[in-house]
Design a protein that fits this description.
- The complex is a heterodimer of chains A (about 290) and B (about 300).
- Chain A is globular and about 70 Å long.
- The two termini of chain A are about 25 Å apart.
- Chain A is an all-alpha fold and about 290 residues long.
- Chain A has one domain: MetI-like (MetI-like fold).
- The chains are: A mainly alpha (about 290), B mainly alpha (about 300).
- The interface between A and B is large, with 102 and 113 residues.
Chain lengths: ~290, ~300
């Protein structure tokens, strides 16, 4: 847009250097991912030693009941966690945008704290907490692996959804809601028929982002998961210690394709709702 | 913090239609509750545990006697060296991320044609959304002594790669893993510095370098600060990169905390270490900000703009 069309000069050296650097950074960013994708076609027994091209890793991955079970656990947890985060975050986001007051400072501080606390601290904090609540206070639902994992990965996502919904509503006038109430809509009706549809793109992208964030959740999951409901990332972490096999790369490639599909969906939703590229980028990093 | 739940009803300016406004504040309550129960309370518990002790081989923590002993233990030479190492990796890793990301983000924001910027950002986002652990394993494959990169190096006569399970490998891993988190805020910042502003600087006689240093960079400062914090804070708490690439002997504080909870079963010491980790992160960031402020003071003093006669 800013590039002037009229004066066509030779590109200065700095521009050439910049683009060389830019492409090098891109190559750096993609190198290990390409390696994983390529090595998922490794017919050898060990991941890092190439043993010829083939699809045996994919066959082995889908035939391995343990791997399939862990992936299913991860997907179930991701759905629950995304639902939780979306409901809580959307409500909080609407309140933040529409009813600012002294409480917003404290609440925003809490959300900020949730996003900046190192995951390892959340993880070690949740472990004794679940044990305490589950066994000593007798809240037995917290002994369920899926519940623990879903709660663990919902915390960060709740903050992300709240930011998303808030920033979408802040940019919109409240006149529509006022008009609804002037026309005798109850506050609840105004909320469900006017405010919620207005925030729908942010809610949907928040849901999908929470879903992918939960698929990725490794550290908290490693601490709170219970035997029998090991999620996929924790399984991988275990096999880093016991020996990596090509099946890991194969299933990771499948999961990568799944994640990318979800993200493309988010980008489309945001684009349709009129966000700029920079806004989408910010949205997708949870800020 | 809980007491706040009831106070904010009476907001600063009385709303015109109070009758209709009341219920919306309640919408934030479920999230309050959720985060208080599953974030504030457990982290508070860790804080409390950090003053306790490990009573016996089979118990993880006791809090009938509270003391600062676990903090002294966490800062004893063996563990302090791990914290120093974490600080080293954190600072060097963040600086490397900044140095690598700055030209790349500037390139995407100003040199790449506008219609292709979205695609470029999408490409930066792909690794960001690939499973952290899987990306790191990709590096393990690449750096493996029996891997393809190592074979190329040998065929070039450079000898095999012997980086795996060293601090160098951890550094490569963290720079790689957190780089997108630096590129994105920098991109947003550079994108905001409009082209016309740079043109104006050029028209007023500044060359490219001067324009970058005196116009673009100062205006992009909030983005740079955001990027540095986005990278530095999670990097200091990193656990996975160090576990996958750093080998069995723990090199990062995150691993230290994890091992106290998982293998040593000493929750008191682990909690103290977690608190020390957070304090180290926050204090080092504050010290760095103060130092930067002091160092750049002469520059700011020399280039400050006086408008009118106001002091």
């Amino acid at each position: 847009m800013t590039a002037p069309v009229v004066r066509r000069r030779r590109r200065p050296v700095t521009d050439v250097l910049l683009s060389v650097w830019g492409w090098l950074v891109m190559a750096f960013l993609f190198a290990p991912i390409l390696v994983i994708v390529v090595y998922s076609f490794n017919d050898g027994r060990l991941l890092s030693a190439w043993g010829g091209f083939g699809f045996s890793a994919y066959e082995a991955a889908f035939a391995n009941r343990q791997i399939v079970a862990t992936v299913l656990v991860t997907i179930r947890v991701a759905i629950w966690s995304a639902l939780l985060a979306t409901v809580l975050g959307t409500m909080a986001g609407i309140a933040l945008a529409r009813r600012p007051g002294r409480w917003t400072v404290w609440f925003t501080a809490l959300l900020l704290l949730v996003t900046v606390t190192p995951e390892i601290v959340d993880a070690v904090a949740l472990l004794p907490w679940f044990v305490q609540l589950g066994t000593e206070l007798g809240i037995t639902i917290l002994n369920d692996g899926i519940v623990r994992l879903a709660i663990g990965s919902s915390l960060f996502s709740t903050a992300v959804v709240a930011y998303l919904v808030r920033s979408r509503l802040v940019g919109m006038d409240e006149h529509l809601e006022h008009a609804a109430t002037d026309l005798y809509a109850t506050p609840f009706q105004a909320l469900t028929r006017v405010t919620l549809p207005l925030t729908a793109p942010a809610v949907l992208s928040g849901f999908l982002l929470s879903f992918t964030l939960s698929l990725d959740n490794t550290i908290i999951a490693a601490f709170v998961s219970v035997q029998g409901s090991t999620p996929w990332p924790v399984y991988i972490l275990g096999s880093v210690r016991s020996g990596l096999r090509p099946e890991i790369a194969a299933m990771s490639t499948v999961m990568l394709v799944l994640t990318l599909l979800v993200l493309v969906l988010v980008a489309i939703v945001l684009r349709r709702s009129g966000d700029s590229t920079a806004q989408i980028a910010r949205t997708m990093t949870g800020g | 913090m809980t007491a706040l739940g009831s106070a904010p009803r009476r907001a600063a300016t009385p709303p015109p239609r109070r009758r209709l406004r009341a219920p919306s504040f309640l919408l934030a309550l479920p999230a309050w509750f959720w985060l208080l129960v599953f974030f504030v309370a457990p982290v508070g518990l860790v804080l409390y545990y950090s003053f306790g002790y490990k009573p016996s081989l089979f118990e993880t923590v006791a809090t009938d006697r509270l003391s600062f002993d676990r903090y002294l233990e966490a800062l004893s030479p063996t563990f302090a060296s791990v914290f120093l190492n974490t600080l080293w990796v954190g600072v060097i890793g963040t600086i490397l991320c900044l140095v690598i990301a700055m030209p790349a983000a500037y390139w995407i924001a100003t040199k790449v044609p506008a219609h292709r910027r979205g695609l470029m950002l999408g490409l930066v986002l792909v690794p960001f959304w690939t499973n952290f652990l899987v990306r790191t394993i990709g590096w393990r494959v690449m750096l493996a002594p029996e891997g393809f990169l190592s074979e190329w190096m040998v065929s070039l006569g450079l000898g095999p790669i012997e980086l795996l399970n060293t601090r160098g490998a951890v550094l490569i891993g963290v720079v790689y893993n957190y780089l997108p988190l630096m590129i994105l805020p920098l991109y947003v910042a550079f994108d905001r510095v409009e082209g016309p502003l740079r043109e104006a600087s050029k028209d007023l006689g500044a060359d490219r370098v001067r324009t970058f240093l005196t116009v673009t960079l100062p205006l992009a400062r909030p983005g740079i600060v955001a990027g540095v914090l986005f990278v530095y804070i999670p990097l200091m708490g990193d656990y996975i990169t160090a576990t996958v690439l750093g080998g069995a002997q723990g090199t990062m504080a995150g691993q230290l905390v994890a091992s106290q909870f998982q293998t040593a079963q000493n929750w008191a010491l682990g909690s103290a270490m977690a608190v020390v980790l957070i304090l180290t992160t926050v204090l080092s960031a504050v010290v760095a900000a103060a130092m930067l402020w002091l160092v750049t003071w002469p520059v700011r003093f020399a280039t400050r703009l006086r408008i009118g006669g106001a002091s």
